[in-house]
Amino acid sequence: MNKRWIGTLMAGAMAAWVALPALAAPAPKTMLEPGAMAPDFTLPATLAGHDYAFALKQALAKGPVVLYFFPAAYTSGCDLEAHTFSTHAAQFAKAGATIIGVSENSIAMLNKFEVDPNFCAGKFPIASDPSGSIGAMYGVKLYPPQKGAKTIHGQTITHGFFARTTFVIAPDGKVVASMSSEKDGISPVQHVTHSLAIVQRLQEHKAP
């Protein structure tokens, strides 16, 4: 992990967290930046084989939230990202953070992906945003269905794709860090390691 990159990100995030006002309600055209108020949402989600409604407000009452948008289940980068989040899930929990992944996949597809031991392994929830409306509220790029796109199982992908984007949201609802593979040039694994380092820093700052 690039400690200098994390240090720079945290310094900027902490300063923005304190100094910037919350953004207005309309969906932004660009990705939400540190200091913006994270739009509240509730989405159909799955965890360990059980469907439920994930509510951001409820999750924030417990601590920071790592919200990551991913293109599609059962595709190479998303599979690696989900697996890496699952192998680090205990560390996120130790830092008091909740992980929630969001894609345009159907909840039926996510049910299988979430419990698969090779991917989410039932360690954290993932949610379905089939219209892309929640992603739009966060300024996440959404690409239309791609001709010829298939899963690792050879199934045709008919839904749109979110650009790989991660937000770290503080318990007060403000974004303290945002990162995307397109803008920041980071890998699926780095979305995990960078966000973990940030929530661990938040925990350190919270400690007396």
Radius of gyration: 16 Å
Shape descriptor reads globular
Terminal CA distance reads 27 Å
Secondary structure tally, helices: 8
Low-confidence stretches: 1-26
* Overall SS class: alpha+beta
Tally of strands: 9
Strand proportion = 15-25%
State mean pLDDT (0 to 100 scale): 88
Helix content: 25-40%
- Biggest sheet statistics: 7 strands, mixed
Main-sheet strand order equals: 2-1-5-4-3-8-9
Helix-strand pattern: HEEHEHHEHEHEEEEHH
Give a quick set of tags describing it.
208 residues, alpha+beta, 7-stranded mixed sheet, 9 strands
How are the elements arranged and paired?
Elements: H1 3-19, E1 42-47, E2 50-55, H2 56-60, E3 65-69, H3 76-87, H4 89-94, E4 98-103, H5 107-115, E5 126-128, H6 133-137, E6 142-143, E7 161-162, E8 165-169, E9 175-180, H7 181-184, H8 188-206
Parallel strand pairs: 3-4, 4-5
Antiparallel strand pairs: 1-2, 1-5, 3-8, 6-7, 8-9
Helix pairs in contact: 3-8
